[in-house]
Amino acid sequence: MRKGSSLPVHMRNVVTLFLLFTTPAVAEPLILPSGNAAELIEAMWDDSAGAGTDLRLRFLSPDLDPDAQFEDIEIDLAVLCDAIALPILAETGRQVGQIVISISDRPVPFGKTDPKATQHFDTFRPDAGACVWDGL
């Protein structure tokens, strides 16, 4: 947005994220090292933890194996951080304390649980243009 925009800052962030995620490069599902496809379903800037702003990216992967162990998909989460989160940070110029990546086999509203859903989460921090595992 150009300087002097009448939109509040939080709305400019929403517009920026909308534009980023509706481009063909991000709108297509990514094929991950596990062989699963993942589609970005939600992105948000979150400062509710009180330790700065986090970038939260939520992905849908309908073929996510419910019996898979975290170790089986942790590289997928790192790839999503590198392929999606880092370009968002570069494009927006935003600084974040953490990047939170989550992936599930079905849509689950943010902050809710679904005992039937398979979900995995991990956290990273951006450092020198890379996603560094931050240990959830």
Description:
The chain has one domain (9-133): Diaminopimelate Epimerase, Chain A, domain 1, CATH 3.10.310. Residues 1-25 have low confidence and may be disordered. 29% of the residues lie in helices and 29% in strands. It starts with 8 loop residues before the first helix and ends with a strand. The longest helix has 23 residues, at 70-92. The protein has 3 helices and 6 strands. By secondary structure, the chain is of the alpha+beta class. It has helices at 9-21, 24-27, 70-92; strands spanning 30-31, 37-46, 54-60, 98-104, 119-127, 130-133.
Looking at this protein, list some descriptive labels.
alpha+beta; 6-stranded mixed β-sheet; 3 helices; globular; disordered N terminus
Describe, in short, the structure shown.
The protein has helices at 9-21, 24-27, 70-92, and strands spanning 30-31, 37-46, 54-60, 98-104, 119-127, 130-133. It has 136 residues and is α+β, with helices and mostly antiparallel strands. The chain has a single domain (9-133), classed as Diaminopimelate Epimerase, Chain A, domain 1.
Radius of gyration from the alpha-carbon trace, in angstroms: 15 Å
CATH class category name: Alpha Beta
Number of individual domains: 1
Strand content: 25-35%
Secondary structure tally, helices: 3
Strand order of the largest sheet: 1-2-3-4-5-6
Query: Largest sheet, if any?
Result: 6 strands, mixed
- Structural class by helix and strand composition: alpha+beta
Which spans of ≥5 residues are poorly predicted at pLDDT below 50? Answer: 1-25
CATH architecture classification name: Roll
Helix content: 25-40%
Q: Write down the overall geometry.
A: globular
Order of helices and strands: HHEEEHEEE
What is the number of beta strands? 6
Distance between the termini: 34 Å
The CATH topology, please? Diaminopimelate Epimerase, Chain A, domain 1
Mean pLDDT: 82
